[in-house]
Every structure is written in C-alpha cells, then in structure tokens.
What does this fold into?
Amino acid sequence: MDLGLTLILAAVILLAIALLLRFFPKKKAAPVVVEPQKKVSYGEIYLCFGSQTGTASNFCKTLASEARNEGFEPIVFDLADFKAEDWLHASRLAIFCMATHGEGEPTDNAVRFFRWLNASDTPTDALKRLRFAVFGLGNRQYQYFNAMGRKTNQIFENLGGERVYKYGEGDDDVVIEDDFNEWKRELWTELKAKSVARASDEPASASAKPAGPKTAFSVEIVQKPEVDLNHGETRRRLLETADFDFLTKQWLGSDVVKVSKIEQKRDKPEFGSTLHVEFDLRGTQVTYGTAQNCLFFPANEEEAIRRLATHLNLRLEDVFEVSESSDGGAKRRKGKLPVPSPISVRSFLTNFVDLQGTLKKSTLTAIAALVEDPAVKARLTAMAGPTGKEQFEREILVPHKGLLDLILEFNIKPSLAQLIDISSRIPPRYYTIASSPLQHPTSMHIVVSLVSTPLPTGIWSGQISKNLVDLTSQMERSGKVFARVSTSKSSFVLPEDGRPLLMVGPGTGVAPFRAILQEKSARAKTGGAPLGDTWLFFGCHRPDSDFIYHDEIEAWQKDGTLTRLDVAYSRQDPSKRLYVQHLLREKADEVIEWIEGRGAVVLVCGLTYMGKDVKNLLGELLGARKGIDGETLIKQMEDEQRLICELWG
It folds into this structure.
C-alpha cells in the first residue's frame, strides 16, 4: 500500500472517531456532595449583673453580643431573679459584673443573692460545679472601692467554684469602660480554650455579603393602640408577664406624680440655679422614708425627638411591637425585652432612648458598623479602641456629645430595630430626699442644682436641668405638670438611741439633713422617740446668694431642733476660700468630743472629693488623738455605722 493511500485511510478513521465522540452520549460526572458546615457552639454562658444605675447591666449586654459572635449561647441574668435551687450544685459557666452600692453593700437587685452566698445554711460546696469570672464596678474615691466584686470573687472560690478568668475591677472615677475593655481583652480566647466545642444545630453564616448588621429584636408597625404606660396597674401587669432589661424594669416600677411646686432657692440665681421640687404623692403608690433616695426619671425634650424622627423618617404617631429576632441577639429567658409594646414611636423616643447621656465606647462600635463611609468608620472605631482614649475624651466627653449628636453629625440612619440595639435606656437620676414623711406624708421634696456648661457651640445643659426648666415653663402656663419617680433606700440610718448627729452637707448635700431636722421637729410635736442633738456644717459661696433653706435652718436653730450650726462661705472673702473641711479643723476639739465623748454619728452628703477630704481629716484628727492609724479608724467607724456617707460626682 503506497503512502498516499495510507494517509487517506488514517484521515477517514480519525474522522469516524471524531463523529462517534460527538454523538455518543456522555456519562455525567457524579455530583460532589458538600456537607453543610455546622456552626461551632461552646454552650451556654450566664452573664449576671448586680447593678444600681445600669452600668453593670449594660456591660453584660455588651458581653452577650460578643459571646454570640464567639460561639457561646449567652443568657443575660438579672440577679433579682436569683433562686437558690437553680444555682445549688448547678453546672454553669458564668460571668458576674458586680457593682458596689452605699457602704460596701450589694446593689438592690443583688441583695437576695448575696444574702444566700453568706447564709449559714448554704452548703460549703454549693458552687462546686460553677465556672466563673468576676468584674467589679466601683469608684476609687469611696472607702469600700469594689467591695462587692472582691467579696463575690472570694466567696465563689470558698463555695467550691472554679475561677476560669482573672478577676477585674473598674473605676468610675475615670472612664470605667476602659477598665472593662482592658479586662476582657483575652476573655473569649481563654474561655474557648477551657470549654468543649460542639457542632451547633445552627448552620454557619454564608460567605455571601451580609445585608447589614443583625439586630437582637424585630420591629413591626401595627394598627393597635399603644399600651397605657401611665396606668399603674398596666405597668405592674407588664412586669408580671414579661421580663425587661434592667433600666426598663426600673422605669416600669416608677409612678407618675404631680409636680406641685418648683421654687428657686438661690437669692441670686444669676450665679447659678438651685431648685426646690415638690411631688404630690396622693393617689399614687409612692412611699418614702426620711433621708432615702428619690429616683427621678427624665424624658427627652420634644425638640430632640422631632429632630431624630425627621432625620430617620419616622412617624411619631406610628405604633410598633417588639419581639426577639430569630437570628440575632442574646438568648433570653421569658424575653428580656428592651421596651414594653405595643408602643408609639413618640413614647419610645421620649422615655427610653438615651439621646443625651455620655456615649459608651461599645455604642461607638455599634454605630461604626452602620456607617458606609470608610473614613468615618475608621475614625469611630479608633475612638472606641484602646489607643483612642485622648480622641474619645476630646471629641466625645469634653463637648458632651450624645447619641443624637453623632447620628446627625455623621448622617447615620439606623432602622428602628437598629436604634433599639445601639441605644441605651435613659437611667434615672438619684437625689437624696429633702423631706420627712412624718411632716409631709403626702408629698416628697428634692433639691436640684441645675447643670450647664459653656461650649464653643453654645450652652450645654444636663437632662434633668432641661426637664425642670421645661416643667417650670409648663407650670407657669397651665399649672399642671407631672414627672416620673420612685424611691429606694439610702445609706443613711438614723440612730434611735438618742446619740447626737454631726452632719456635713454643703450645697445640695444639705438635703437629707433638712429631712432629718424635719423628722426631729415632727417627733417632738407628736411625742415620738426623740432624736439626739444635731450639729450641721453647711457650705455655700456667699450668705446672700446660695445659702439655701436658710430661713428654715435659722428657725430650727432658734427653737432648738438644730443644736449647732457652722457655715463655710467659700467666696465671701476674696483672699480666703473657706470650706466645711476648714471649719471641721477649726472646731477639732469639739468635733472630737462629740464623736469620741458623746458617741455622735457622723453623716456626710455631697460631692465625692469633699467627702474624701472630710474622711481623711477625721481620720487624721481622731487617729492623732488615739495614737492609731487614721485610715483604720475611719474604716472601723464605717463598719459600725458611726460614719455614713452619700456622695456623688
């Protein structure tokens, strides 16, 4: 066969093969089966708080958000719900954020829990299956700095608990959130290393770009009437049928009262403003004791809520319901709801969203997640981080910027559900009550110094200051104004054995001593158990400008209700600023005689730095007289309730 014929034959064969391959049915490749990836879970973690003003509860909510992202199943737990049978020998992982209240005592919501920890019949191995970590919240200016955090940490170990992360402390005298952030820096890494990971029933997040930050709660606009939050029985029923966040629970436990009087107490208000406020308690559930605390719940002003509603395209008249999202937020028992619902947008913005309060760094982080501009996102994230302390102070703290300011400044437009997530609830303000129920059984009095700070952008005023100015204007127009209040115990305890009272209260710190002097006067008139001699150290700028309640005080001095009075005027003599601390030193021999010779109880109320100076001075004077360490002596007096302080600021 010649070469040409061979080439032709080969070409025909190749063509035939090509045609066969083209038309022969191809066998499909077996499909690749990809098992859906399971999300890893490290199990439940209880985030428990003992909180008085809401800071500890907010820290637990921050931990809950982080815990979910780290693969834990968080349960935010209010210690007011504590039941011994649920915790005895229970196998749990728990973090406790514990604030200290009063004279080294537990917060109101943690009293029952702490009582159980210290009970004689609590088994010594009661917490042998508890794995725990504790973060304490306090103020270093107080004698009992972080007493509850330290006690809780030690008692847990004594009862058999296993500490799985280092003990931490926060100081509210500086930026406590910085301390908290530093403490939890390695928290989740260490907890995961000490926990068993298991496959969760929930699938891992898809790799596709998320639609936006998940929210813990869903919001639905409804055609329903909003719940009547001014009706006491309705609020009590809500508290019985659902579980709410700590500050919302406090709000629902308060009552609406009529404001019967707002009176300027300064003779020269151009140098500052101090208002005497009276609440009419008739027809309400509010009761109080002498020198206890009044919780005043402020509301956002109308202008602020209208600006926010306009910016977010919200209708103030719309009513919405809140429910837990199926894909967000922390695990909650009975639904830890942020607000009651159905609720109107107006009521929500007015009563619950803290638009003006000091921003937390966790809020900055949450806001940054909603920002699209990379430069703004980086700026907010940096301020919230460990290296942004100076920037945070300069751009947020000093100019008193709140949530509303940042939303408007950076043109951030959260949805209603996102607003619930990123905002804090409005905390109540605490005021020591300035009246005695024995003399005023149907009314309760407080005294408030209005706070204002000049800024380059204008005058900044505190929220209570704004509220009281608004209430004063409304009272002048209509005569009928209302406020929301509740009461709680304070540290002050009146001796019933006739011991003298040495009272130190400059400025509005005189409030509890006005109540005590009213109590003493009323007892004398009604034949009640008499209170002992009283000595008041008061302080103000000048006798003709801010000597508040001077007419009443002088009358008590004249009729013997007030045994002694010494007043320090800090601005009367330009060459010498005189404070209550100076008067105490000048009267040292007599002060020591009252305390050591007559067994007087010392009561101090006012600013923290003043209280610290007074305690240091008393320790110095008494320690020198007795030849012992003054700090030890002061602690002993506090332990025996011979020295009691209510301080703020």
